[in-house]
Amino acid sequence: MCGKPPEPYRTTMGLFDSFGKMLNVNEFVANLTGYLENRLALAKVEMRQEISDAIGKLMFFLVIAFVGVMALIMTSITLGAFLNFIFNSQFLGYLIVAFLYITTFGLLMRFREHPTVKGKINNAISRFFKEKNKLNTDESQQSSNTQ
């Protein structure tokens, strides 16, 4: 009797051993750590993708804006020269074009805080983002359907 513990003690220890094996805390911690590392890596990849998409859209917008500004400048010079020809003057056409731009700028500054203008701008921006979210949702649904 000296070498063997009593029977109830052995049964209780066997229960704890099997419960410990079932939980296997080290394996659980390793799996949880791996899961968290993978989620973090996925978040980094998604963040990079979003940033690269935003930079691409910004570059495209800048190119379009540059071309638009150049077209506006050329059109303004042409209109000024044409008005100079019509009025038989060297500067009156350019003065009229400048006055149009100054008037447009003044009107924009005057009505920038007007509730109607602000409401229309806010509605346009919210519609743009709703359409963008709808397109992103449709694309993600299509990609999940193909997989």
TrEMBL record:
Pfam families: Phage_holin_3_6. Keywords: Membrane, Transmembrane, Transmembrane helix. InterPro entries: Phage_holin_3_6. This is Putative Holin-X, holin superfamily III. It comes from the Bacteria. The keyword Membrane applies. The chain crosses the membrane at residues 58-85, 91-111.
